[in-house]
Amino acid sequence: MQDHTSSSSLENAIALQKYGVGQPVRRKEDDTLVRGKGKYTDDFNLPGQAYAWIVRSSHAHGVIRGIDTAAAKAMPGVLGVWTGTDLAAANYGPFTCGLPLKNRDGTPLLQTNRTALMIDKVRYVGDPVAFVVAETLAQARDAGEAVVIDIDPLPAVTSAEEAAKPGAPQLYDHIPNNVALDYHYGDTARVEAAFAGAAHVTKLDIVNTRVAVVAMEPRAALASYDKASERYTIQVPTQGVAGNRTNLAKNLLKVPNEKVHLLTANVGGSFGMKNINYPEYICILHAAKTLGRPVKWTDERSTSFLSDSHGRAGQIHCELALDSEGKFLAVKISGFGNLGAYITGVAPSPLSLNVGKNLASVYRTPLMTVDIKTVLTNTTLMGAYRGAGRPEANYYMERLIDRAADEMGISRLTLRKRNFIKSAQMPFAASSGVTYDSGDFQGVFGKALEISDHAGFAKRKKESRKRGKLRGIAIGSYLEVTAPPGVELGKIVFEDDGSIRLITGTLDYGQGHATPFAQVLCAQLGVPFESVKLEQGDSDIVHTGNGTGGSRSITASGMAIVEASKLVIQKGKRAAAHLMEAAESDIEFGNGRFTIAGTDRSIDIIELARRLREGKVPEGVPSSLDVDHTTEAVPSTFPNGCHVAEVEIDPETGIVQIVRYTGVNDFGVVVNPMLVAGQMHGGVAQGIGQALMECVNYDSSGQPITGSFMDYALPRAEDIPMMAVGDHPVPAKSNPLGTKGCGEAGCAGSLCTIVNAAVDALSEFGITHIDMPLTPERVWRAIQDAKKKVA
User: How far apart are CA 57 and CA 80, in angstroms?
Assistant: First the structure.
């Protein structure tokens, strides 16, 4: 206890200025990761571990007549070979979709109930049918190649639209026309009436291309089993250990939660793909239990193209109804979403529900309908991918607006201005069924025009023309419904060495949680920034939480930290009152110190925690300041922004180059602007990839023809322009920090602006639409076809 507080309070106040909310503090983990000292799943090893190899189908569709494992079992070093029949005897649960999505008739979506290994049929190239465990990886691979699979091939279908037609190859007997979910939202009669009375209707058919996730770190897992405690342990990259442990234990292994220990260390990217459990994990857990020794599996890049979930993949028809002045009357979309061969995780949601929630965007669109069939095909399973329905919904709307403006002869800027939701209308009940709590969409739009020097575009276009280049510009607004509601963990533990363990159920797989979370805790408790140690990757410690996804981390964990901090302060006031022999009502807290009001008597929070640990306290006085708190459901937030892209196109080659890019965003209260800018840059980069080059393709028999980086292009540094970033924050009213998610916004803002800018550049040839990816060949052919029409 100290009697003089001025110097220490001043030091704490200065520290808060440096490390508090809003400061661009460097990421804590960068020194470790940049120096190659991070520890990823494949870096972990256990004594006596064996190695697994997965045997996969080379057919996209077929009936399994037999699997001969005799030769493989006899090979050197082989410890075991298992098939689907072996795993079926262990009675593991199926992989399913846990979302309560319903068909238009009210019936639940049809589950595929995927097993870890196939027994009767294979449904895509890469479908796992057996696995081998051996002393070395090379021995496991050799034995895997010796497994003989007898498959009678069946016709395959890879297009969702084609798969839903009568007579198409059927993947499941219980799913007619391969339609697992016939999703509908909206009042069809009212929407049709609005379209019937519209002065103008714009229509577009849009392909939302399938993309591969290709995270830097391939999936990997290390499993072990303790016979004495009957407990499984698995080291695996995830987006949150608590939820994945529950799913693995309850639904797949069918054991109590406490019988599964899930660990996640550093994760080299995920973007939604690593937030589900996969068949390989069941395989190696089974082998570890059977063999009584640890088993390790690490994917290879070639097989990850097959086995990791993919993203996007929709064939959508869009329509926008407007009155004579360009006011939006209604919007409707219909079409097909490609689920791949199996439904797991949240797969149908990005293709249906999330599209509908985000379609209205920042505009006063009074009516909408969404009619999308999510369809099973003989392709790799679908999953969440950065934005998970949000970027594509904004893409559909912004493409419609640009097209409508051109058709009606209204400025694209003017058309948007006429339809923005006004700040005075907040809170605004959108036609999507959600209510926006905050936002200044017109203000964001105006700032984007200013920073991007939109007014100077005509001059830049002339300069490009002199160099033989076509130049186009697009400005596109976006809004995302982020942070899916759910509880979150806020656990604060004061350690003997003066450090503070902060434990929460989200998980950093590249976002940089340690720094902003510490900033929030420092702002709440006034503790030293360096003393905060974040823990997220151990299910024995992180017992609750919905993981990282949907741009929820700072909102959910931030709310948990704020609430947990208040509980710490409450406990601290009772304890400080006892130690300083004062009334609890006289204790004040600020800048990390508990002070008797009107005096200079105080005690630092770290010192108080130490005193409580070391001494005995009477009944009613807290014995520690530690808190284990779980929030109520954290509400969604609505980040939004306006991005401006300028492209140059070489008409002789079709090459599209992004030459200027501006992003102005409303992320509410920004905890760390440096991290937020980095998140936006990364999202834009992924949007550039999908817009210009990325596309997973299959041939007519269902064979993937984009199975490596020789066939699948990713953006490189030279493809990413310098970006001007602006902020126009309007604090959210739905959480105590006022934050809004930012992790996926770059995708939402970039898809539409890049494609619209390219269409603007190509408009002089009469080109009004072109689908992603805007590869040089596709753009060049569009130009040649347009020239032929003119000729």
Answer: 19
